[in-house]
Amino acid sequence: MRIIDLSQPLYDGAPNCPAHPPVKVEIIADHPQVGWRVELLTLASHTGSHVDAPYHKLANGANLDHIPLGQFAGQAVIADFRGVGPDEPLTADKLAAKLPMPLADRIVLLATGWGTKRAKTDEWLQHPPYLSPDGAEWLVNQKIRAVGIDHYSIAGPRDPVNSQTHTILLGANVWIVEELSFPEEIFGISQPFEFMSLPINFRGFTGAFCRPVAIVR
Ligand SMILES: [Zn+2]
To answer: 10: Cβ–Cβ under 8 A, 6 or more apart, which residues?
Structure first.
């Protein structure tokens, strides 16, 4: 069994959504003084690779406790959009061209290439490609289980588009995984493949950090 890591690292000052506080890591105990080392974290629950539950956008939506853990593991396919430009919408037409296979109950991962640009630059923070509302509707109509992207938000920083895209997906109980990273080797494996992004067991949360992986047997 081979595990391909699709996560982004978390560390002090890691790039994150500008609407959230900066990622802070403090060492509150260290070896020379006390014989062990411990980190204290200050960061939003939607930081680094993480899942969004419907409650993130919908006041009456399911939170993490309402979603069976098995939902976060399933068969995934990648839509390879690498080379897409800044601010470019991923629309229904573009998705249909990249995803000719059956998608029912599949986890659809959108590879924009923005994962490799992850830095506190104006381009990464403010101008990512994004899933348009009509693209989200198209995915919901294909009866997908979940959707992921290699950026901090499935629809970037722009409103009302971000809000609409989230509402369409989460309103259909399609969960989202954000801030993925796609190493070159993921594009060489056969599709669909086994994918897993198990969220940390935070009680009643709207989302949580996870470790997204592809499993190749
Ligand atoms: Zn999120």
So the answer is: 23, 25, 43, 47, 48, 209
- Give the residues of the chain that fall short of pLDDT 50: none
C-alpha 56 to ligand 1 mean position (Å): 8
> pTM of the predicted model, to two decimals?
0.97
Of residues 49, 116, 131, the one with CA closest to residue 82: 116
Check residue 10 and give its pLDDT.
Answer: 98
Q: How close is the Cα of 217 to the center of ligand 1, in Å?
A: 30
Q: Which helix (H) or strand (E) holds 40?
A: strand 38-42
pLDDT at 115: 97
User: Is omega for the bond preceding 89 within 30 degrees of 0, making it cis?
Assistant: no
pLDDT of 158: 85
All domains in the chain, ordered by first residue: 2-8+45-216 (3.50.30.50)
Report CA(177)–ligand 1 centroid distance (Å): 7
Query: 53 C-alpha to center of ligand 1: Å?
Result: 8
